Amino acid sequence: MWNVGAGLGGRIIGALGTLILTRYLNPDVVGEVGVAAVLVLTSQVATSSGYGQYVVAHPSAGPVAGFHVTVLSACTVAVISLLLLVVGQPLCHLVNAPGAIAFLPGLVAAFAILRIAEIPERILNRELRFRRVGLGSSGAEVVFATVALGLASQGWGGQAIVGANLVRSIFRLVIFASGVDPRAWLRWGPINRAQVMSILGFAFPLQLASLADLAATKWGNLVVAMMFGPTAMGLYALAYNLAQIPADNIGEALADVLLPSFARLAPGARQEALVRAMPLVALLVFPLAVGLGVESHTLVVTLFNPNWQPMAPLLAILAGLGVVFPMGSALVAYLKACGRARTVLVFQVIHMALLLVSIALLGRLGLVWATVAPGLAGGGFALLTLVYVGRVDGVPVMRALAGLARVLLACAGMTAAIFAFRHIHGLEPAHHAIALLASEVAVGAVAYVGTAFIIAPAQVADLLSSLRRLRESRRRTVVLETNLQARDADG
């Protein structure tokens, strides 16, 4: 609840900041910054992303392991950052965005700090201290939006995004590091070869898997830039980021919780937990993703200036098809908890291949068709992974798919209600945009809740039961703490 609530709140603030930022920046500038960000993120993910997950997947790992993870991460980040600065210019020319080179140095520094901050963040996740993680992540989004808008209003252009990324990374490092005992990741000690090999053996497949996952989600931006130029890439990238709000801030937040939760379960209990978790994630994510797609035209007309109006059809497609991404995240969390890093790698490579091939083929038909590729690739990835865990671990695939289908049908009821409301009022978004947007969102929310109770009663009951147990558990905790304080006061 903390991860999702705080993360979504921070992301909404960040999205509002991005919305205002588009008043100062044109799509071509956003596209060039986006190209630089993808290049930097690719270099960082490919070399150090698996180290932080080592401390989560090994709950009994002590300070020695934390120190080794810190040293390995710092060394690899330093080397890859210097290498990227050397080869950055030809890479930017290769992807048809030579102006991106101006944004590389600042983004390299920002992402390097972010990689170091990941270590204390993962320790907090391992200790199930999600409140601090959620508040730190949401606070970082607020900081990013504030700094970016302040710098953009002063005429910094694309460097406003770079500066905001740098400040956000420093903020995350301070918040997460201050919440962790420094000895858990900074206590100096001799380098142990066996410990290093253990970390590398675990991290290397995950780093390749993370690279493939990044390629499956972000390299499409580079392909779009190569095929259509930085302006089209700016439109595509912003539409993709907006469409990913439900997946990133609910689906990914829940996946961060699922990994340590699955890791603490007995192997035989994980299959049932996965089948329960997927429809619960869908209940929260599907209506937001589908609703965002349905409201895309009204949203863009209402909130964006004329330079960004061509983004509307891209957002509709990306958001509607975005329902598949959280399912893949939950399945990956399950595989990681089972210690199958190499299996994760295989499926992430398949995901990457599906995306790049799809976007290259569909892109020949135009930019709008190219936006269909992420949904097709994500859906294929999730389905193949689910079939695999069904055959290998005996996960009841049909029961999982039935639960997801019920939630999707509830979303169909929501969509029908919104279109019926539009047909009745017959108003044009350009003239009544804000009122229409608020009215349609309200109609969709009421329709979804009512339809979900009818079509997916078991999934809704499971969610409500979980919330009731959470409330009761918190009540018992408060009573226990009160009793203990009273006993202490009595001596």
What does this structure look like?
This protein is mainly α and 491 residues long. The chain folds into two domains: 1-191, no CATH class; 206-481, no CATH class. It has helices spanning 2-21, 27-57, 63-94, 104-126, 130-153, 159-178, 193-228, 230-243, 245-264, 267-294, 296-303, 312-321, 325-337, 341-362, 367-370, 372-393, 397-425, 429-455, 457-489. It is globular.
**Mean pLDDT over the residues:** 82
Backbone shape: globular
Radius of gyration: 23 Å
The SS-based structural class is mainly alpha
Short overview:
The chain has 491 residues and is mainly alpha-helical. The protein has helices spanning 2-21, 27-57, 63-94, 104-126, 130-153, 159-178, 193-228, 230-243, 245-264, 267-294, 296-303, 312-321, 325-337, 341-362, 367-370, 372-393, 397-425, 429-455, 457-489.
Which SSEs are present, and which pair or pack?
Blueprint: H1 2-21, H2 27-57, H3 63-94, H4 104-126, H5 130-153, H6 159-178, H7 193-228, H8 230-243, H9 245-264, H10 267-294, H11 296-303, H12 312-321, H13 325-337, H14 341-362, H15 367-370, H16 372-393, H17 397-425, H18 429-455, H19 457-489
